[in-house]
Design brief:
The protein is an alpha+beta fold and 101 residues long. The chain is 25% helix and 39% strand. It starts with a strand and ends in an 18-residue tail after the last helix.
């Protein structure tokens, strides 16, 4: 089994009065959180187990009364074990980068 972590951001356009309904729906979805909201636009962040779950959440969000559109803005998948490794600094390859030393 391929154990991956999927990270995505969504822009949700909705009627202003649908904001509380959207917040309630997001509260029931452990893989989602609201990162920002301004009137009739909300930004959702997703961290979950896969594309299928993400696509189902997008469909469910679109079906929420008052939601006009849901757009996937960013999606990244990474093996879970790679994310658990410490980050290493980038090594300079020695190639000229066009900057004067």
């Amino acid at each position: 089994m391929n154990d991956e972590v999927h990270i995505a951001s969504l822009v949700v356009r909705h009627r202003p009065d649908a904001g509380p309904r959207l917040e309630t729906w997001v509260g029931k979805c452990p893989a989602l959180e609201i990162a920002g909201r301004d009137g009739a636009c909300s930004i959702l962040l997703y961290e979950g187990s896969g594309t299928r779950e993400l696509m189902e959440l997008i469909e469910d969000c679109q079906a929420t009364p008052g939601v006009v559109s849901v757009n996937l803005i960013y999606h990244h998948a990474e093996p879970r074990d790679a994310l658990e490794q410490p980050a290493s600094p980038l090594e300079h390859s020695g190639a000229s980068d066009g900057l004067a030393s």
